[in-house]
Write a structure and sequence with these properties.
CATH superfamily of the largest domain: Acetylglutamate kinase-like
CATH architecture of the largest domain: 3-Layer(aba) Sandwich
Strand order of the largest sheet: 3-6-2-1-9-11-12-10
Largest sheet: 8 strands, mixed
Number of helices: 12
Distance between the termini: 40 Å
Bound molecules: adenosine-5'-diphosphate, aspartic acid, magnesium ion
Length: 422
């Protein structure tokens, strides 16, 4: 008998028919003698719908009071889907109970809309499991010290599941989704993408941080910190497929030190459409400029990603950086308001229609020329590189958003990642 955490994403929980399918699958695992904790997401589209209602009433504001209410609101999506799954399990003849984050409790800090899990008390869940019940724990949410409901950031149910698995020392955490594993890149963008049977923890961490939405980055961090075996697999196979076959399907995250994802130099391609570029032009090229521009941006709690400063000409330079698209207007206002006049810079320009494309692979540590292959491939496609950023196991470029698909597909081919033609 094993203790296994199942996580089902929004599409997997997208209708009552899908929820019944999930219930049948979970019942199969429980009847095979396993203790099962299920962490469901809200039904697909529900979180967007709820947040859209808030936006209809009042535009996004930076205030804590506003963000607290967003969490009150968005957390209801997971509460509804959890109760529906418990009802479906009961109708399959399984004893089942669902708990909201505060009932477990899953304790978090108070950063509404992007809270971090601090601890999980598992006595209640364990008692129910011991009594033979399937326990459902709402994804995406927790409770802070003052008893306010918090949420963990978009895609946060992945993190709830892995954190529950870590806290309970589960044997495995199975992340059921609408694709059958982790691919060399998003199969919706590059149809030639290949499923990986294993992916190293380090590469998964990079891919998630660079925009691969298949796993929320914090879930990968939890998996690494507590060495939780995590497998990504499909909830769209027939629910009654052989359980051993199902247990081996999908993609397993591995922790071996030097395991190379199928021995490729570049193992995957990630992309992010959520960024925007901002340039401060004609900045006097004197010491402290980066600090004088980015210091106030950081103080406003705006995260900066790629940064580039051009060579100086006649004592002036251009300074560019990227921020999340949601922070774009706020950052431009901030720069125009105080920073640019104080610096004596010429002007601020921005471009929200950019994207970041990254190649990832631990093999890049020991191979030279990988970045130049990337640059050559993009130049052959006529794609202009606006910014570059590198680390030991990744190279990222910022390009015009309209070239995203072309860039991803041509890099996928150039690095030998395409699946063999059928
Ligand atoms: P869920 O609702 O189950 O959490 P998500 O939409 O959050 O599902 O994540 C699954 C999606 O991630 C897939 O449908 C796919 O389009 C996307 N994706 C992005 N990069 C990858 C990748 N490298 N491998 C597989 N899927 C990816
Ligand atoms: N329902 C939340 C979202 O849409 C959390 C999740 O699906 O993981 O972001
Ligand atoms: Mg997700």
């Amino acid at each position: 008998m094993a203790l296994i955490v199942h996580k089902y994403g929004g599409t997997s929980m997208g209708s009552t028919e899908r929820i019944r399918n999930v219930a049948k699958r979970v019942a199969k695992w429980a009847r095979a003698g396993h203790q099962i904790v299920v962490v469901p997401s809200a039904m697909s589209g529900e979180t967007n719908r709820l947040l859209g209602l808030a936006k209809d009433l009042a535009p996004e504001r930076a205030s804590q009071a506003y963000h607290r209410e967003l969490d009150m609101l968005a957390s209801t999506g997971e509460q509804a889907s959890s109760a529906l799954l418990a009802i479906a399990l009961q109708s399959e003849g399984m004893e089942s109970v669902s708990y909201a984050g505060w009932q477990v409790p899953i304790r978090t800090d108070s950063s509404y809309t992007k809270a971090r899990i601090e601890s999980i008390e598992d006595q209640r869940v364990r008692a129910d499991l011991a009594a033979g019940k399937v326990v459902i724990v709402t994804g995406f949410q927790g409770i802070d010290e003052q008893g306010h409901i918090t949420t963990l950031g978009r895609g946060g149910s992945d993190t709830s599941a892995v954190a529950v698995a870590a806290a309970m020392k589960a044997d495995e955490c199975l992340i059921y989704t609408d694709v059958d594993g982790v691919y060399t890149t998003d199969p919706r963008v590059a149809p030639a993408a290949r499923r990986l049977s294993t992916v190293s923890f380090e590469e998964m961490l990079e891919m998630a941080s660079l925009g691969s939405k298949v796993l929320q980055i914090r879930s990968v961090e939890f998996a690494g910190k507590y060495k939780v075996p995590v497998r990504v697999l499909s909830s769209f196979t027939p629910w009654d497929i052989d359980i051993n076959e199902e247990a081996r399907s999908g993609t397993l995250i591995t922790f071996e030190e030097d395991e190379k994802m199928e021995q490729a130099v570049v193992s995957g391609i990630a992309f992010n459409r959520d960024e925007a570029k901002i340039s401060v032009l004609g900045v006097p090229d004197t010491p402290g400029v980066a600090y004088r521009i980015l210091g106030p941006v950081a103080d406003a709690n705006i995260e900066v990603d790629v940064i580039i400063q051009n060579l100086s000409k006649d004592g002036k330079t251009d300074f560019s950086f990227t921020v999340h698209r949601n922070d774009y207007a706020r950052t431009i206002d901030l720069l125009k308001g105080k920073i640019v006049p104080a610096l004596g810079a010429q002007e601020v320009v921005g471009d929200a229609k950019i994207c970041k494309v990254s190649i990832v692979g631990i093999g890049m540590r020991s191979h030279v020329g990988v970045a130049s292959t990337m640059f050559r491939t993009l130049s052959e496609e006529g794609i202009n590189i606006q910014m570059i950023s590198t680390s030991e196991i990744k190279t990222s470029v910022v390009i015009d958003e309209k070239y995203l698909e072309l860039a991803v597909r041509s890099l996928h081919t150039a690095f030998g990642l395409d699946k063999p033609a059928e």
